[in-house]
Amino acid sequence: MSPRFTRAFPTVFLALLASPRLLVAAGVSEPPPPISAEDLRFFETKIRPVLADQCYRCHSSQAEKVRAGLRLDTRAATLEGGDSGPALVPGKPDESLLIEAIRYGNPDLRMPPKGGKLPDNVVADFVEWIRRGAPDPRVTAATGDSSTAAKTAHAYAPAKDHWSFQPVVRPEVPVTRHPHWCLTPVDNFILAGLEAAGFKPNPATDRRTLLRRVTYDLIGLPPTEAEIQAFLGDTSPDAYAKVVDRLLASPHYGEHSARDWLDLARFSDTKGQVNRREDPRHPGAWTYRDYVIDAFNTDKPYDRFITEQLAADFLVRKSLNRKTLPDEKSPGDRQVLAAMGFLTLGNHFDGNPHDVINDRIDVTSKAFLGLTVSCARCHDHKFDPIPTKDYYSLYGIFASSTQPRRNSELPTLHPVADTPDYLDYAARLADLEARETALAEEFKALRRGGDVDSEKRRELIRRQTILQAEIGDLEATHPGAPPRAQVLTDSRNPRDFPVLIRGEAQNKGDVVPRRFLEILSPDPARRPAYTQGSGRLELARDIASPTNPLTARVLVNRVWQQHFGEGFVTTPDDLGNQSAPPSHPALLDYLASRFVEDGWSIKSLHRLIVLSATYQQAGANNPAYSAKDPYNRLLWRYNLRRLTMEEMHDAILAIAGTLDPVIGGKSVLLSSEGFATRRALYTFIDRRNPPDLFTQFDFPNPDVPSGRRHETTVPQQALFFMNNPLIIETARKLTQRPEFTRLTRTEDRVISLYYAILQRPPTLREISLATYYVNHTPKIDAAATPPRPKAPATAPVEPRLALNPARRFAETGPVGGAKNEGPLDAWARLAHALFQTNEAAFYN
Amino acid sequence: MSDHPHHNHPCCGISTNPEDYFLTRRQFLSRVGLGLGALGLASVIDPLSALAGPSAVGGGNTLLLPRAPHFPAKAKAVIHIFAQGAPSHIDTWDPKPALNAMNNKTLPGGGVAMGSPFEFKKYGRAGIEISDVFAKTAAHADDLAVIRSMWTDIPAHDVATVFMNTGSLRIAKPSLGSWIVYGLGTENQNLPGFISLRTGSLPTGGAANYQAAFLPGVYQGSSVNTQSSTVAQMIQNIRNSYLPPAEQRRQLDFVNQLNTLHPYNIQREAALETRLQSYETAFRMQTEATDAFDILKESDTTRAAYGNTNTGRQLLIARRLVERGVRVVQIWHDGWDHHQDLEVKLSAKASEIDQPLAALLSDLKQRGLLDSTLVIWGGEFGRKPTKDRNGFDNPGRDHNAKAFSTVLAGGGIKGGVVHGATDELGGEAITDKVHVHDLHATILNRLGFDHTRLTYRFNGRDFRLTDTAGEVVSPILA
Predict the structure, then answer these.
(1) Cα–Cα distance measured from residue B55 to residue B444, given in angstroms and rounded to the nearest whole number
(2) pLDDT tens, position by position, B335-364
(3) What is the mean pLDDT of residues B3-24?
(4) Radius of gyration from C-alpha coordinates of chain A
(5) Which chain B residues are Cβ-neighbours of A351 within 8 angstroms?
(6) What are the residues whose beta carbons fall under 8 Å from the beta carbon of B415, sequence distance 6 or more?
(7) Strand residue runs (E) in A223-369
């Protein structure tokens, strides 16, 4: 990639809408002057849409006849003006013809000529834009064509030139002035950028810091003291590479990676707004979570990972064609079906099918393609070349797919053996389902009789709600309930659907074929319609195609973000026209092409990144550099990273030795002991009421696919660490382990706690401060300790309330079931203090 | 510190002089006190910039600092009393003599007319007609603006409730309170800016009613169960049950000392400072929140005026919170879904809120807070003029999205005003209709915002509370 790009400072990165490569492609030699991010936003949101809507029809290269010789579709043409002279004078709205025209003050010059004066706020926006100097990123113009069809196509022409829609071409690895610094090709790209800016990278960080960094990064847990000693003692040249391999082989790697993916898959254990009386739980949600963990652990090729999540039913169709009753014991590996939870575990939106389909289109396009296709539900996408027709092409695919109504109709993951537990479960289920059928008959009878006996109807509804809850309880909690895949299958008659104009169901437009998005199709003019059933498999293959310009870039950008805290593109779920340009476009493309060549191996991608010198840099600040590049977009240092809520929780349990290393299984309630022993990703999440604790620590809304979390700091987080019994009791447990209690010297105890909690020895000053703190801890005086609150009595929940889905899983018990176990000695207080330090919450 | 790698080894481009990095404790604390480090804080974002994405590393407290809206605000704070369950407008704020005259007759449009069992009287200089069930609140008629022409989209409780609070039917969007705190910050950094008071279980529609959705989590409403007997039970983790305050202070001082020593800190990282600051705030919050929620600190007279009931306590807490600079207080008053036995149940329900609401208005006025506090009472939709067929001998009314009433007071609202009207039977708003989006636009206007410009960029699009609609209801503005 051109050094011109990498030489620029971050504000310029944000400012350039098109990358230089595209400028060259468009045959334009002069880039527009840099624009601030704010100005760019202003132009894109306030100015461009109005120009396109109101002016382009007569004043652009798409116009059938350009009026008054004036074109307003590029910056240059606008400045050059038409028959009456320049359309505007930057900085001087009152001297600009454009403003005179849209103000409607001059009867001979009123624009737009039809439809009346633009709203005052729009006129004000144009005045403001010109006052700012008319910042304008537009360089390429649509070429004219008189046919109507071509005009529609060209409405998107500039948008289509966007860098991320262009094929990935593997760039040359740049030559740098300091090749000895480079450990993997990643470094050549980064160093080239630094050198162009006159920067030097930081030196390598110390080994202890590096181990802590890479361990948190890859498995979400801190290194143990033994691991630290082993690494410090290993002087072989590949010592670090061995550590990386060890971490990538750890089953905790899959758990850690899965959490990011679950954010993206808007994963939750409940259905949100349920359809009528259905039980609000997704009883088998955890099978999808475990599938994701396993996929990362086995380094499932990413193209396969995509295909399974969208179309696993096609891959094991044979076993699905037969009825899949719970007592069926069909052989074969059907575990892969669990992948489809990606599509099915969303909100049920009161059973509104349009919203359910929209959710599936949204999660598919954001997660895999970094595109906001759901914006095209009611109108053509405002910024990206996604016409509404494309949305309804995908709509047809998902509308041609269906889900079994009953949980018991879902396929089991394994053949089921006749264990006593299973037989008990099956008997209870049969009973409940018989009651369900009988109840359905009663409903029918009520309707047949035209009976308006509403008391009776209310009674039936109440019984049905209770019955559904009982079935839900059985499926979710019975030990004999077999794990089931949350599948989607093709409906009996897959077909194409019409566009719903403005997204309104009763307002049908043209029927559109089920097929892939135009902008991502290799030959848009000849896009094949999907013919195999719903078309999900074909969709999956088009997404997971090596020639798809977005799929690999989006994934690489996500993995980069995982390691540096910030991706090349800072909006990981949107690489479209509204995203800021990548910081290192060439490196992004290099990694994307390597990723595909390496068989879509995510673990190989991790290796390429974490083995680089870039990744191994020290995190030290440099005031001179940070003045020029405050966001460290050039990567002259390693970024300071804050632990997520899950990482913090898991780390504290791991440090105290109370973490249960078992992988997978049913979700655990926040108020259960499970939360005090299992990794946080196993917590039961009700999408209607995510636990406050999670929300306070930036857990994303489980109704929205999220590739990146906010990172906020609020006092409620501090209160959790300061006061919550789970944290304090875990600190106490750390000081009750024999390896601690057998130490007698104060200094040894301080050192031991530092190793455990911060993975380093304390400095002399820290030892003396800690000793002072411990020695000056007042004698435990029960009278001075505030009275321990009684465990809040969990009031018996009224059955009626409990059936309200919004309130069903509201947890009131203490976090992790932890309660105050009595006065704390000085050492527990010290351990608790160390848990609260910044160092425990960050790595660098 | 001698073992820290950056101190003894010269690093390229990096100062190795600890003086460049080290802050004295006094400097440190003074900066913490300032709220914002006096640094070129790379990670502090402009919260109103639409490009401000999730990169708010450590910006949490900055995000809550008070800031100016688009134009001078009339109201600084909002108390939103949510009468959940869809109160009947016909029996409260919207008298329908024509309907009373038709009582028990079959209406042309179907259904049997149900006149209101309650008397309406004229109140205040403007002579606003208000039902007896709100007689005490009605004494404040000259401070009230009654919108009688509200309408919404879907007459289902949970959807409509969330819609009234977020302007969105199904897609997760930020709540009104979250938008307000996002726009204005909050006045008291020791308390959450947006507090939702509930009694017992979560509200219909769940946390969506006070969620931040895609806005940063700092804008989420903090949900507090005021039914709990102690503040410790109301607010998670507000008390340390192990250490007396002095000993906790000693622990926190020790933690601060370690933090200032720590090598990351001497590199002056904004995220680390923000976290330090949040601990100090949390420590103060333990006292401040306890105090704010402790209504025993009020005089007997005041408590008696609000009434010793759940609702009375909630409204009194709300006043204490607003007084302390909390920006938005949402209060859940559930149970207005009167399909049956309306006469008894509605009057009982109204009597729970009438006296406390009247007391709140008096109290705010007396303290000079009413002018700057926007008080809103209303539900998610209204009810039909006909008898609910399910009511039998004890009639009630069924759901109606086409008409309901919302009442506003204080905070730049013109008093003694009735806005809009329903048809003569009360079935549908017909004059000067006000949609939920319009109400939202009006509320934001009083807080100093042009609702079309209070936006947040998410996934490539600027979102706003009023979606693509909303018109300010100018006639009720003072």
Answers:
(1) 26
(2) 999 988 899 999 999 999 999 999 999 999
(3) 34
(4) 30
(5) none
(6) B124, B140, B141, B142, B143, B144, B145, B409, B478
(7) none
B264 vs A455: CB contact, 8 Å cut-off?
no
Identify which of A121, A622, A823 has the shortest CB distance to residue B13: A622
> Where does B77-227+294-476 sit in CATH, by number?
3.40.720.10
**Bridge partners, A412 (sequence order):** A484
Any CB–CB contact under 8 A between A139 and chain B? Answer: no
Label the pairing between strands B222-225 and B194-198.
parallel
Residue A792 confidence class, pLDDT cut points 50, 70, 90? very low
Give the separation between CA A380 and CA A820, rounded to whole angstroms.
58
Is B116 within 8 Å of B110 (Cβ atoms)? no
Q: A842 CB near a chain B CB, below 8 Å?
A: yes
What is the pLDDT averaged over residues A530-549? Answer: 96
CA B313 – CA B316 distance, rounded (Å): 5
As a whole number of angstroms, the distance between CA A40 and CA A34 comes to 9
A240-245 contact pairs (CB < 8 A, 24+): A240/A210, A240/A214, A240/A611, A240/A616, A241/A607, A241/A611, A243/A211, A243/A214, A244/A214, A244/A218, A244/A606, A244/A607, A244/A610, A244/A611
Rounded distance between C-alpha atoms, residue A140 and residue B334, angstroms: 58
CATH 3.40.720.10 domain locations along chain B = 77-227+294-476
Residue A81 Rama label (left phi>0; alpha psi -120 to 50; beta): left
Chain B residue closest in CA terms to A773: B254
- Please tell me the distance from the alpha carbon of residue B434 to that of residue B402, in angstroms, as a whole number: 10
pTM of this structure:
0.78
| CB contact B282 to A (< 8 Å) | yes
Quote the ipTM score. Answer: 0.79
A390: amino acid identity, one letter? D
The more confident residue out of A206 and A715 is: A206
Residues in chain A, overall count: 844
